[in-house]
Amino acid sequence: MKMPPNLFKQALRQQQLQVGLFLGLANPLSAEILAGCGYDYLLIDAEHGPNDLRSVRAQLQVLAAYPVQAIVRPPNHDAALIKQLLGAGVQTLLLPMVESAEQAQALVRAMHYPPKGIRGVGTGLERGARWNGVDDYFQQVEAELCLIVQVESAAGLAQLEAILAVDGVDGVFIGPADLAASLGYLGQAGHPTVKAAITQALATISASGKAAGIFATDATLALEYQAAGVCFLAIGADTGVLRSAAIRLLDSIKPGAANNEPGAAY
């Protein structure tokens, strides 16, 4: 048995634009509905969404039947949780709030087996290895792992070049909402100062040869960031899509009944 290829990682290396959606409903049925909608990737969010190891695994199982790549964002940098997620079959991880090269190096080590890292060996119990059903698993898994670190603070921006220099980091995802808060503009991710900082960061990431990503729900802004070097975009979340569609449907029959929808921030 062969491991599924990490098409998301391949696309990033070729600088092919990847467009995705965050999953926060923690439900395999809604994940499966979205899996057939044409997105390049779906990101299962366990940082802000109520996902845990079991719900992540259930969604990975349904997504595997569709031509969409799965990414998972854990709530923190816990090496034991990273080990469990990789064991469940996750190939691409987005790790939040990375602020130093030392943190990035620790995350690389958490993802890899010795001697490169510290990941424990338990393939007979793990879906990722198909319970020892994958031929040459240890060789295959190393080639398919993808680590994206999320820079979303002033401290992270100050260390961006050092983070980018860490071997094993495949890309950097900018988190506009937390970055805006860190820069003193809470709830103002579109503030000119924040946008300028983001544009500069994206250019720095792109110039390093690594993949640059960002969350952007505004189409015009997303195009601006793409011009600055972005090659993977998150353009919304299942929660926001559901709420927006429900409001539009209600307004089509009963105008003004729904409250105005606030902007989403991830």
Distance between the termini: 37 Å
- Count of helices? 12
Oligomer: single chain
Arrangement of strands in the largest sheet:
1-2-3-4-5-6-7-8
Largest sheet: 8 strands, parallel, barrel
Structure summary, number of beta strands:
8
Residue ranges: pLDDT <50 for 5 or more in a row?
none
What's the gyration radius in Å?
18 Å
- Average pLDDT: 95
> What is the structural class?
alpha/beta
Sketch the topology as an H/E string, one letter per element: HEHEHEHEHHEHHEHHEHEH
Instruction: Kindly estimate the percentage of residues that lie in beta strands according to DSSP.
Output: 15-25%
Shape, principal axes of CA atoms: globular
User: Helix share of residues?
Assistant: 40-55%
Task: Give a quick precis of the structure.
By secondary structure, this protein is an alpha/beta fold.
Report on this structure.
With 266 residues, the protein is of the alpha/beta class. Helix content is 42%, strand content 16%. The chain contains 12 helices and 8 strands. The chain has helices at residues 7-13, 28-35, 53-63, 79-87, 101-111, 137-144, 154-158, 160-164, 176-182, 192-207, 219-227, 238-253, and strands at residues 18-23, 41-45, 69-73, 92-95, 146-151, 171-174, 211-215, 230-237. The chain has an 8-stranded parallel barrel, surrounded by 7 helices. Helix 3 links the parallel strand 2 (41-45) and strand 3. The chain starts with 6 loop residues before the first helix and ends in a 13-residue tail after the last helix. The model has no long low-confidence stretch (mean pLDDT 95).
